TrEMBL record:
<feature type="transmembrane region" description="Helical">
    <location>
        <begin position="229"/>
        <end position="249"/>
    </location>
</feature>
<keyword id="KW-0812">Transmembrane</keyword>
<keyword id="KW-0472">Membrane</keyword>
<keyword id="KW-1133">Transmembrane helix</keyword>
<protein>
    <recommendedName>
        <fullName>Transglutaminase domain-containing protein</fullName>
    </recommendedName>
</protein>
<dbReference type="InterPro" id="IPR038765">
    <property type="entry name" value="Papain-like_cys_pep_sf"/>
</dbReference>
Amino acid sequence: MFRKLVWIFKRHPFLYKTRFKLLSKNASIEEINDCSYNQVNTLNDFPEYFFEVNAKIFKDYKPTSDLDLVKQLSLWFEQNIKGGPGLSEPSEKALKIMLEGKGGVCSDLTQIFNNFCVINEVEVREWGVTRAPFENDFGGHSFNEVFCKQLGKWVLIDVSYGILFYHDSELPLSVVELYKLVRQDIKVNFKSFHEVRRFNASVITNNFLDKRNVPFLICNYSNKVYDSFLNIFKMFAPVFVIHFLVYLFGKSYHYKFALDDYRAIFVRT
């Protein structure tokens, strides 16, 4: 019964769609070019525990290439985080639970990946994907994009599976590049650099290569703000209430839709 109540609070279609109505904004591709998680979050915004773990991740070797660095970070996640239920916890507690093998879904992975990227001076941002029109059976997915200075471009990386996407060259695709190709029915390839973790190709197709998918950039997420609110109110209120409080205080994240009109989510079929 408790798990059912948690699901209702977190994934009920009414609350899911309400969140999109409150937080969504249409934007141009040009408007999102310079958006990044690093603009809102600095080294002082993360618990010391992240720096302790980061030292362990790169204790033997730290790549100089941004792409190689985030690959190594993702591989370390694969070897040390088994995954499990979604967490909705302050960042330090979330990371500890994940390293204990007791939880962590795609959104949890992307958020802690964001923090480690900032610590290692890699520009990063977080994306989500939903369906238009909205589908109850598609829970969405979260993934990251990093700006690789050596390549001079943004690169989509799915940390959950260690996936990069390609078209007709060895250069991995950005989020915008991927979705433009998918919508033109142009073949896209994907490769995993993970060593052990297995995945079903249909999962990647469902999350990325379905033409009904609508990507959105998650902007203005402050790790420090959400840590503060979750630490203070988690014992007294459901997570969706806490997020609404952050919204009322004007400190909430928001979604930018650069390829689609977000109102298409609410069109009835």
